[in-house]
Design goal:
Largest sheet: none
Number of strands: 0
Radius of gyration: 23 Å
Structural class: mainly alpha
Number of helices: 3
Order of helices and strands: HHH
Helix content: 55-70%
């Protein structure tokens, strides 16, 4: 994978924090920043996937009215926690 250069402007306090952490971890400031950016992007991508799934679920519910109640979901989850291999409850209108 080819890399390209991107510059960041950090205030003195943040730059100092990066340098201190890099020294403590025996890593370069470059490595620390790449790791931080990579973790942030991964976390935010997962958050966005969750958000999109929630929107799709809401739209599906709006279109069909199909759902399970909180009690049905809690009962199912309790069985899973006990180690039972059970199917999820059926959606109903």
């Amino acid at each position: 994978m080819a890399a390209s250069t991107t510059s960041l402007k950090l205030d003195k306090e943040l730059k100092g924090r990066v340098l201190r952490l890099a020294t403590a971890r025996r890593r370069s400031p470059h490595w620390i920043m790449l790791e931080a950016i990579g973790q942030y992007i991964e976390r935010e991508e997962m958050r966005e996937q969750f958000r999109q799934a929630a929107i799709a679920s809401w739209n599906d519910y709006q279109a069909t009215g199909l759902h399970v109640t909180v009690d049905e979901a809690d009962t199912w989850l309790a069985k899973l926690e006990n180690g039972d291999d059970v199917d999820p409850p059926e959606c109903h209108g």
